[in-house]
Amino acid sequence: MADATLATVVSFLQAHETKISSGGIVKSYSHDTGSGPVLCMVHGYPQSAYMWRHVVPMLKDKITMFIPELPGYGLSSLPPNPDKRTVGNILVEALQQVFGKDRPVIWCGHDRGGRIGHRLLVDNDSKNNIKAAILLDIVPTLEQWRSFSNPAAAVAYYHWPFLATPMAPQLIEGMGGANYCRNNFDRAKGSNAAGVAKFKEDDAVGHYCHLFNQPETIAGSCADYASAAGEEVKEQEADQKTGKKIKVPTMIIYSASNLGRMHDVDAEWPKWVDGELKCVGIPDGIGHYIPEEAPDQVAKLIMEWVDKHGK
Fold it and tell me: How many CA atoms does the CB half-sphere of 163 hold within 13 Å?
């Protein structure tokens, strides 16, 4: 199933190939309940929309879903610029071509998808119509870079500076994209045996490794990290100096044993959110890939947030 997609394993989803104004294509999947908000579910590194395969069936008929493939990660086109604002606006444009511009949006992003959401939420552009957010297993990018003063964090997150260097694509191709991808999963998955087994279902590792054997995926994902090491840090520094923060209700779901071991997540996020904030640490050795390792808990938390803020 290495070349499977989310629609292969979740048969009720509709697949889309949306041409956007910059000329590229965004591949995505959707399920429409006919009214109400759209849950925009965005994956992270080094994955694809396939990561939502366990959660999506639990949300069927409860909320409309739009699940894009990140530009530059093997299925959608490379973006004209890899920065989070450009990619976020591309995804919103694709969503609005599928559902129109009037439906409110609840942003639900894991890892890089969460960072894209963070940028859009701080920008607070009314045309994006984002009314609430769920960000999974991240602290703000600036806080992540600051954590490198801790040697343990610098080792755990070594891939941040490595992927941002010009030599990274060539070195990863030399090692083999699939090998590098597999190594990342071994480092970031949790210690909970049942969670790890759930993560590996449907040949997920084979699927992700298949995508990361493509030079374009390696280049596109490295460009994402390079952007996060430059202009995006400066933007977040400026945001903090000028008091620009997230204004919509925001829930942070994180791995207590992984992210929570390196960061005081509950203390860091209030500095970045001006409004309702809820932080939930997932315990019991669940690792970074929370939607796959603990899908029941994630789906339950999503629906609680949707029920509260999706009216």
Answer: 23
DSSP assignment of 105-173, as one string?
A: EEEEEETHHHHHHHHHHHHT-GGG-EEEEEEES---HHHHHHGGGSHHHHHHTTHHHHHTSTTHHHHHH
Which strand (E) or helix (H) includes residue 67? strand 64-68
- How many structural domains is the chain composed of? 1
Residue 146 counted as domain residue: yes
Q: Within a domain: residue 243?
A: yes
Q: Assess if residue 1 is contained within a domain.
A: no
Query: What is the rounded CA–CA span in Å between residue 209 and residue 203?
Result: 10
**What dihedral do alpha carbons 162, 170, 75, 57 form, nearest 10°?**
-40
**CA pair distance 193, 39, nearest whole angstrom:** 30
End-to-end Cα spacing for the chain: 38
Query: Which residues are registered as beta bridge partners of 255?
Result: 282
CA dihedral 10, 14, 15, 20 (to 10 degrees): -140
Would 210 be classed as within a structural domain? yes
Summarize pLDDT for 59-109 with one digit per residue, the tens.
998 999 999 999 999 999 999 999 999 999 999 999 999 999 999 999 999
